[in-house]
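Our example pasted here:


***
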Amino acid sequence: MALVVQKYGGTSVGTPERIQAVADRVIRWVQQGNQVVVVVSAMSGETNRLVGLINAIDPEGSAREKDVILSTGEQVTIGLLALALESKGQPARSYTGNQARIITDAAHTKARIRNIDDQAIRADLAQGRVVVVAGFQGVDGGGNITTLGRGGSDTTGVALAVALKADECQIYTDVDGVYTTDPRVEPGARHIERLTLEEMLEMASQGSKVLQIRSVEFAYKYDMPIRVLSSFDEADNAKSTLVTREEEVMEEVMVRGIAFNRDEAQLTIAGVPDQPGVAFRILGPIAEANIEVDMIVQNIGSDGLTDFTFTVNRGDYQRALKLLQATADAIGAESCEGKTSIAKVSIVGAGMRSHAGVASRMFSTLAGVGINIHMISTSEIKVSVVVDEKYLELAVRELHSAFGLGEAKAEA
């Protein structure tokens, strides 16, 4: 008997018919002798509807009350799926985040999971029930409802799998796994049967939308295998991508995939005094505003001055620019400017550790089609560049071809 946690996204439970299909799949897993915990998102479009209601009343209102409202979407789904299972003769019980004792910190709208008390869930599983848990939500130490931020249901699923010591966490979505890049940009993108958690972590952090980055971080930390599948493929042995810590990459595979992110903005503060502590003075206020900084470049100083450039999510651009302008005035910088017409493209692959010349091939490929690179960031298994957004799709296609990702050797 295996214990599996299955997570279904909003499109997978978007209609009563889709919820019935999920119930049928879950029952088949139970009939094969498995214990099943199901984590669900709100029905497709429901969270956006709730956000619209919030904005119609007070978009700047209490984060606590926003969480109270946003958490209701998943509560509807768990009840409907539990009803569907029961109607088909499968005992089931639904749990809100509070009832599942998913304890988080008190950071409303972007809380982080601290602990899960799995006693009640285990008792239900022992009695043959399917447990259906609301994703995206928990409760803080004071009993207040919290939400985990967009994509938080993936994190709920992996965290529950870890707490329950499940054999596998299955993420059902509207795609049948991870591809070498987004097929909508490069039609020749290939399905990947197996990835390392480290590779998936880099791809998620660099813009791949298949898995939410916090869920991959959780899986990486606790060595929890994740399988990505399509809920629209009714075959139980359907195509999927298994993401594990085990590294089974063929020697000749340098690059496994290309990730990209359009939601980037670049800020530059020029003519900054080149002295100890200047980076902290620039980025300190940004960090205090809970704005995440991605890539950072500081130029070599000249005449006692230097330039400092960094990127943030495009949604944080205006706030970051306002803070940077205040910092520029405070430290006597020459100028402060920013732009949003940029994008980040990354090549990722564990095989890059044992191959020289990967970065140079990337740079020469982009230069060959006239794409200028504004910023560069590297790790052992990743090279990222910032380019003008208008060249993003061209860059992805050219790199996909240059590294042979459309060929059979891309599979491990």
